[in-house]
């Protein structure tokens, strides 16, 4: 199937998605806060909402990046270079500032559906998420890919397929996860180094290939 990346690329991509998920940040903090403050239903609704938002970013990235590739292979290369530099900056920022796990119990207001749509809205309106998807997904697509739109869409759906069940598991074990992470700063720091190492390696590989 033309939209499937080769096996090494897919394995590397899924590994990057896994590292991204386990590194504490705003999304994890929101899921845990809603779960601890309002229960598992609120936590799962938040996970589903952010996942739907992620699918929206996937479609935007797939069609936008594909249009750019169709217009100019050089412009696509520039996007990949910018993306590589952005990933390198994320790696450096992780080492400088560390993981952000700020969990404050948040009560659910307006029921499960309102919580779900809040998750969608928070994800869709986060400029960092927009920038991340536009620069991250193209790193795993070749300029001569037979179906770049399908491949970008597949990668985005694969991201959701991997992180959605992990998010639900995170909600089910919210109290244990929160306590374990906050009580073990060395574990958080190890995650920062893992994140920085993997994304720094991606950035270096892309820059070397471009040269």
TrEMBL record:
GO MF entry, a single one: amino acid transmembrane transporter activity
Cellular localization per UniProt: Cell membrane
Coiled-coil boundaries: none
Membrane topology of the entry: Multi-pass membrane protein
Highest taxon of source: Bacteria
GO annotations of cellular component type: plasma membrane
Residues that span the membrane, as ranges: 12-33, 45-69, 75-95, 116-140, 152-172, 193-210
Keyword vocabulary terms for this entry: Cell membrane, Membrane, Transmembrane, Transmembrane helix
Protein name, UniProt field: Lysine exporter protein (LYSE/YGGA)
Native organism taxonomy: Bacteria, Pseudomonadati, Pseudomonadota, Alphaproteobacteria, Hyphomicrobiales
